[in-house]
Amino acid sequence: MSDPTPDPERPRNFPPPPLAHEDASAAAIGVPAEQVDAVRGAGLRKGRIFAWALWDWGSASFNAVVTTFVFTVYITSSAFGPKGQLEAWLGWALAAAGLLIAVLAPVTGQRSDTSGRRKLWLAVNTYLVVAITAALFFVEASPEFFVLGLVLLAAGNIFFEFAGVNYNAMIAQVSTPASIGKVSGFGWGMGYVGGIVLLLILYFGFISPEVGWFGVTGENGMDVRISMLIAAAWFGIFALPVLFAVPEYRGTGTAREKVSFFASYRRLFGDIAGLWRERRNTVWFLLASAVFRDGLAGVFTFGGVLAASVFGFSAGEVIIFAVAANVVAGVSTILIGLLDDRLGPKPVILASLVGIVVFGLVVFFLHDGGQIVFWTAGLGLCPFVGPAQSASRSFLARIIPAGREGEVFGLYATTGRAVSFLAPTAFALFVGIGGEPYFGILGIVLVVAAGLALLIPVRAESRQLS
User: Fold this and answer.
1) Distances, alpha carbon 62 to alpha carbons 136, 164, 230, in Å
2) What is the 3-state secondary structure (H, E, C) of 404-415?
3) Is the residue at 216 inside a domain?
4) CA neighbours within 13 Å on the CB side: how many for 406?
5) pTM for the whole structure
6) Residue 40's CB: how many other CB atoms inside 10 A?
7) Using one digit for the tens of pLDDT, what is the confidence trace for 256-309?
8) Where does the record place the Major facilitator superfamily (MFS) profile domain (predicted)?
9) 285-323 as b/e, with b when 16 or more CB fall inside 10 Å?
10) How far is CA 120 from CA 20, 111, 126, 130, in A?
11) Do 202 and 218 form a contact (C-beta atoms < 8 A)?
């Protein structure tokens, strides 16, 4: 056996001659095998976390570019028909997509758990979204292409949510109970920052200038259509690392008996009934989180509308504010994820929701102050949005039974979709009552406050469901 005593004249990182077993090189320079295993495991874990978070970075191209700032604005422009009707049809299309997601998400998640093909279905649904995003290139700026755009947008939302169910379920494969908050925050923060990086590239490269890169102009919507191809490529590329770095799921969920598609619903209803009987607290959390998550979605959905209609922002200024808001939200989400692991997710969520309510009311009461109010109070609100979303995911991930992550995150998606009408309805209702757009702020604040009230009695739990 070789002498493990290190040679004082040889640098510690100098590779010694090959020895008899895998860790013999480390032994030859005096490094204990336990330390080697720990370093190797930590490096592998960090690599998997980064690969997992890159999916969030890439998927933000669909959230930021397709559904929020670029394509939905394009398809509701005057080139496609009269204003008012277009927004209504867009709402109906997304509502139909939401209904299908609510019905199918828990079962598709459950079946990916029991089949041991969680990563496979993440890949399938992700690249269906990539293909659909690329197909948006064919939606020309003309009324006859409006229906095609709606169908593609609705389909993209459906498959994006299905992919998200499997992606969220994988957090248990890349984190530990001690790090799940930090990992969730890192992923969510990467999503914010990645979407904004892409948005800046598209805005300054193609959408803002009269003649963009490669001579692209806005004629027939070509600037937006080219942006869809780039967004598709962005998602497709950054979704690859998680598929190579994180192993396929082979946990306890695969031990459950495989049943037919329709029998999956019987199993689902039985599981829900079991949750209600045995762990009603989890059901209340799903309800509370659905309400406040819809309020959080309303913050970004209507933020741009309020910036333009109430505070006089131009289209370019709205984009710049959106970039700043998402950067602030992304950085805060990553940093506050550390507190999630130290204090638990519930205090993070409660503090975040209180912050959103307070700053939302400041924006409402000081709306006559002009753009400086929106820049200061609006940005003051942004650091609370991401942490609330991230901590909500980590709260649920901590208590999901091993092997049922896909199913329960499917329920998470379903409950969110079931109440997704709340923020838009409250916004429209308060605008109607007050007669001015800024009254819509109260509607969004009310939804967030309702979610906060529902969350307060929910017990913070750290143990998994049985």
Assistant:
1) 12, 12, 11
2) CHHHHHHHHHHH
3) yes
4) 30
5) 0.71
6) 12
7) 566 556 666 666 667 677 777 777 778 888 889 888 988 887 787 677 667 767
8) 49-461
9) bbbbbbbbbbbbbbbbbbbbebbbebbebeeebbbebbb
10) 38, 12, 10, 15
11) no
Q: Rg of the chain over CA atoms, in angstroms?
A: 24
Question: Rounded CA gap, 13 and 412, in Å?
Answer: 49
DSSP 8-state symbol, 218: S
Query: Is residue 198 assigned to a domain?
Result: yes
Question: DSSP per residue over 39-63, as a string?
Answer: HHHHHHHHHHHHHHHHHHHHHHIII
Whether 188 contacts 31, CB under 8 Å: no
Do the Cβ atoms of 462 and 177 come closer than 8 Å? yes
Distance CA 187, CA 182 (A): 9
Nearest to 408 by CA among 154, 41, 107: 107
Write the DSSP string, 448-459: HHHHHHHHTTSP
d(CA 85, CA 241): 42
Determine the Cα–Cα distance for residues 460 and 398; give it in Å rounded to an integer.
10
Contacts 24+ apart (CB under 8 A), 417-420: 417/98, 417/99, 417/101, 417/102, 417/105, 417/161, 418/102, 418/290, 419/290, 419/291, 419/294, 420/98, 420/294, 420/297
- Domain of 95 in residue numbering reads as 33-455
Written as six digits, the tokens of 176 are 């530990």
Within-domain flag for 20: no
Classify residue 19: in a domain, yes or no: no
The torsion region of residue 77 among left (phi > 0), alpha (psi -120 to 50) and beta comes to beta
* pLDDT tens-digit series, residues 194-234: 988 998 899 889 888 888 898 898 889 899 999 999 999 99
DSSP letters spanning 130-143: HHHHHHGGG--SSG
Q: Is 353 in contact with 387 (CB distance < 8 Å)?
A: no
pLDDT tens readout for residues 401-440: 666 665 666 677 667 666 767 777 787 788 778 888 788 8
Q: Rounded to an integer, what distance in angstroms lies between the CA atom of residue 344 and that of residue 341?
A: 5
Q: How many domains does the chain have?
A: 1
How many alpha carbons lie under 13 Å from residue 421 in its C-beta half-sphere?
9
Q: How far apart are CA 146 and CA 150, in angstroms?
A: 6
* Helix, strand, coil percent values for the chain (each to nearest 5): 80, 0, 20
The CATH number for 108's domain is: 1.20.1250.20
Long-range contacts of 75-83 (CB under 8 A, 24+ apart): 75/139, 75/146, 75/149, 75/150, 75/153, 77/141, 79/141, 79/142, 79/143, 79/221, 80/141, 80/142, 80/143, 80/145, 80/146, 80/149, 81/143, 81/146
